[in-house]
Structures are given as C-alpha cells and as structure tokens.
Write a structure and sequence with these properties.
The structure is a homodimer.
Chain A: E1 4-8, H1 13-24, E2 28-35, H2 42-54, E3 58-63, H3 97-112, E4 116-118, H4 134-147, H5 149-154, E5 158-160, H6 168-177, H7 202-214
Parallel strand pairs in A: 1-2, 1-4, 2-3, 4-5
C-alpha cells in the first residue's frame, strides 16, 4: 500500500503544485480545504477543480469561522488589500492561519493514519508571513509529535514542504512538468466576482513575475 | 491597564478553575469555547453559566466541524464511552483537539494583543491524553512565537497552565477558595439529556475522587 498524505489545497498556484508533487511521489492523497470566510472565495471553486483534475481519494472542505476571531485584509471587507508592496508583515496576514490549518490537518491525518501532511508554503518568493518559514514548520512538526497519540507512540508525523526553498519560477516549471493546469488556479487576494485577478496585489505580482521568469505563458485571467 | 488573556472554557471543572485563577491574577479575560459536536453538549451551557458567574470581557463560542474529521467517543455516537479504566490513551481522546483549540485561541489572542492564553490542562489526575502534558505545552508555545506576527516581533505569547501539576483535590480546593460554583460545571463524558453525570466514566471518577480527597461536598448531579 502506498503511503497516505493529507494535502492542504487552497486553490492557489502553490498548493496545486504541492498536490501534484505529492501524487508524483506516490502518496495516496486526501485533500483538505477551508471555507474560512476568505474574500477570495473563488479560490474554493478553484480548489475543487484542481483536485478533480489531479485525482485524490477524498476532498474535504471544512467550514471554519475565522472571520469572527481574526481581522485581516483577506477576511475583513473593511480592510483594503494593498496594491503596492508594503514593509514587513502585510495586512493580508491572517493571524495563526497556517497553525489552525495544519492543526486540523493533523487531526484528520491521525484518524486516517496518514503520517505525511503537505503544505505549499514558500519562503523565497512569498508575502513575508511568519507561518511560511522553515523554523515555524519545524516547530509545528515537533509539537505535532507531542500532541497526538500516533505522534507519541510512533513519532510519526512529517510536515512536508516541497516548495519551501523554491523560487516562484521554479515552482511553476516543476508544476508544468507534472501537468498542472495553472489556468484552474486563483492566487489573487482581491479577485472580482468572476474570479479574475486584480494583477496588482502582492500575490498577483509574485505570480506574474514567476510565469515570466519561468518562460511559461501566464494563463491567469485578469480583470 | 491590566494584562489581557484568552481563556479556554469548556464548562468542566478544570477550565472553570483556570478562569477563576486568571481573574484572581488580575488578567482581563476573554473566554473562548467550542461547539465541536461534542456529545456532552450540556458542557456548552455550563460554560455560559461559568462565564456569567465569573465575569469576562467577552465570551465567544466558535462553531468547529471536528466531527467530520475525527473519530472519538466524545464526538462519534457509534463509539461507546468506557465505564471502566482502560490502558494507554483512551478512546475518548479527540485527535489534535487541544492543538486546534490553542491554535484558534492564538489567532484571537493576536488580534486582541492578549499575550496570555490560559488552558486548564492537567497532567496528574487526568485521562492520559498526550496534549495535556508539559512537553506539548512547551512545544506549542515555542511554535506559537514562530507562527505569528506578534510572536516573531515581540516573542510575546505565553501558554499558561496553572493546573498542570496540581492534583484534582488541589484544583477543587483552589477553586472553592476563589468562589467557583462547581455545581455549574459538567465534567462527565456521557451525561444524560438533563446534563446529569453518569458517575462511571473516567472523567466522573476523577472528579468524584477529587471532591472526596478535597473534603468538599460533591455538588455534581448524578443520573
């Protein structure tokens, strides 16, 4: 039997690539997405399409009331998404988001006895969120193996971050080689109702430069 | 201004005592409870009463779809709650529960700039859950300060566990001295529809012995 993995799938470029990498490495994948009140809700539709195209054993979309406890430009309609680069950790940061996502992935992984949890964080061409860095991932993995029955008994859980040291261009080239259809993905922090990208937010900029540097035609639908 | 704290309040004996301790230490408290499909739902009603009696700035009850991803005697009606002590980690263990709860508390705490998160875990008279031990709490705190903007910038978050080394009797004596009304609390894993305790599950046994050893009349309503 192949090894099982839980893969966090947001509908963006990075997580679509991560899922393709996990599958290419022979893992039987369970995809997990969150409906957490994100303003870019077309990401969830993108997540469904990515998962359908790639093929997983199960895709779970978990409703999570993050809006009630966090204020962020990604969940709070009263906070504007910046259209220029900003210093430090940006307002699009959602407090403890990856910690919450990984914690719920850990719970499902323990039930499934899936010892591998894939997350498409990247610490090179990224927005500067603290919960995308290797130090955070290492600390989470250590905590996870103290927090859980399987972790304690078998020291089993691994947090897999295949993209963490890759450039955006490198991620895109890898994804293209694995057949990822980036036309299905949505990365924009502030898309319109039809899921078309703004082209000016931090995430759009990183994505556009990535396609250019990768020498790959950008399939993004812009407003 | 007094320091702010987020306090996890389940409606059980331990968290009621933890909240009373946090308040006695001068913290301005925000209480957080979870509606996660627990079969002992009267705990949530107990949490409301405990919080009302004690006094907090805000009490948030967050809906969390844990049932969909975890199988446990505490959430899965098809798994029986054991009425005898069992070896090892019991079936009432909910995968990654305290990790998920603390992660969401962390998100709220960051928004509030509340640098203290109180959780009533106990590693003496407890059910053997891995996520109640000091090693887990230390690892979570370390992770939290790598995961968050405030953690990285100010290395600020503390996970406070005032009960962790106390006996159940000691917890009860402390709570009584602080005016906690344990008649409001529900600890049973398998209460009836009126919130009356079974008297035979692991949690009931620990609680009953605690009152006896504390020399305090047990106000628990039994079936």
């Amino acid at each position: 039997m192949s090894q099982q993995a839980v893969v966090l799938v947001s509908g963006g470029l990075d997580s679509a690539t991560t899922l393709a990498i996990a599958i290419s490495q022979g893992y039987s994948c369970y995809a997990l997405s969150f409906d957490y009140g994100q303003r870019h809700r077309c990401e969830l539709e993108a997540a469904k399409k990515v998962v359908q195209q790639t093929g997983v054993i199960e895709h779970k979309i978990l409703h999570l009331d993050l809006v009630g406890i966090t204020g962020s430009a990604l969940t709070d309609p009263s906070v504007a998404v910046p259209h220029q680069p900003t210093e430090g950790i940006p307002v699009t940061y959602v407090p403890a988001r990856n910690t919450v996502f990984l914690s719920l992935a850990l719970g499902w992984a323990e039930v499934l006895r899936a010892f591998n949890i894939f997350i498409g964080v990247n610490a090179v061409d990224y927005s500067g969120y603290p919960d995308c860095r290797p130090d955070f991932i290492d600390a989470f993995e250590k905590m996870a193996n103290l927090a859980t029955k399987l972790g304690v008994e078998e020291h089993a859980f691994k947090i897999k971050t295949p993209l963490i040291k890759m450039s955006k261009a490198g991620i895109i080239q890898r994804g293209v080689s694995l057949g990822v259809d980036y036309g299905l993905t949505v990365s924009c922090y502030d898309p319109d109702a039809d899921g078309r990208a703004c082209g000016v937010c931090d995430s759009c900029r990183l994505r556009a430069v990535g396609f250019k540097e990768a020498g790959v035609d950008d399939p993004t639908r812009y407003q």
